[in-house]
Amino acid sequence: MKDRFGREIDYLRISITDRCNLRCVYCMPENGIAQIPHKEILTYDEITRICRCMTGLGVHKIKLTGGEPLTRKGCATLVAMLKNLNGIEKVTLTTNGILLGEQMTDLAAAGIDDINISLDTLDAASFAKVTRRENLNQVLEGIEAVLQYPQIGLKINCVPVLEGPENLVSVAGLAKKYPLHVRFIEMMPIGYGREFQFRGEEEICQILEKVYGTMTPVKERYGNGPCHYYRIEGFQGKIGFISAMTHKFCDQCNRVRMTAEGFLKACLQYQTGTDLKGLMRSGCTDEELTEAIRKVIWEKPVSHHFTSKEVDEDEARLMSQIGG
């Protein structure tokens, strides 16, 4: 399936819950948000039905997100259901890592292919400041739990929200200590993220090279998305950057997103899309469901306009409600 601009769309990001056990300052208010009632969230059978229709359109990579996906009961069960679909090549997970220690065995048995752990700092006090929780040790235990399964790819996602270079250096050092990749993600002006200034790739590279030496670009891809990577001598893993603001990559975008309540979005910035849950619960056929998906993909916008504000259709949901 290609959109009207010729981009091949083969990747679906699914939020399976809007609930989270952290309250990161750039994502959620301190007291949380009004949660979607359980009956309004897609069931695992409904998610699987949508994914089955999408495989017929050429989608073969799925990312499960939240909120925090591991707060939803039986996440590993969904992983197994999706892995059993004909045409699905990879099922991956983005998590804050707090519950990985207790769920990793089940996720591995279900066939999870890759895991991304969101971690912005290795300093306990800074972690508590950013997340409003004191769970750093559980996240570090989650990293160790994933590393017990070398067949499962592991990436650390860091949003450079803290001042000072020390934090960037220490998080990047995880790729030296362990066989994993560390990726720095520019702050997106969505929800509470609008209140923070993003830090660009060039600035971070300069900081890291002062400590670790030359960063050499590599051509290899290590995932489903637009991240590009650098190699540093002596590191087991790579350092990557997802630079949606300073290195706009919309012309290469291969994804669509679905919220926990079944709203299919073609672009992170815009409110436009289709309510797939409403279609299914009103009794639509698989053919009608597939056609609705096809229409969203075909009409995918050419790009975001976060820096220019040329449109008035900006997404009003928080990242925890969309799926980060």
TrEMBL record:
Gene designation: moaA
EC id: 4.1.99.22
Keywords: 4Fe-4S, GTP-binding, Iron, Iron-sulfur, Lyase, Metal-binding, Molybdenum cofactor biosynthesis, Nucleotide-binding, S-adenosyl-L-methionine
Protein name from the UniProt record: GTP 3',8-cyclase
InterPro entries: Aldolase_TIM (IPR013785), Elp3/MiaA/NifB-like_rSAM (IPR006638), MoaA (IPR013483), MoaA-like (IPR040064), MoaA_NifB_PqqE_Fe-S-bd_CS (IPR000385), MoaA_twitch (IPR010505), MoCo_biosynth_MoaA/MoaC (IPR050105), rSAM (IPR007197)
Enzyme class, spelled out: lyase
Pfam families for this protein: Mob_synth_C, Radical_SAM
Matches recorded under CDD domains: Radical_SAM, Twitch_MoaA
Ribonucleoprotein listed as a keyword: no
Organism: Jingyaoa shaoxingensis
Catalytic activity: GTP + AH2 + S-adenosyl-L-methionine = (8S)-3',8-cyclo-7,8-dihydroguanosine 5'-triphosphate + 5'-deoxyadenosine + L-methionine + A + H(+)
Cofactor field: [4Fe-4S] cluster
Lineage: Bacteria, Bacillati, Bacillota, Clostridia, Lachnospirales
Domain called Radical SAM core: residue spans: 4-224
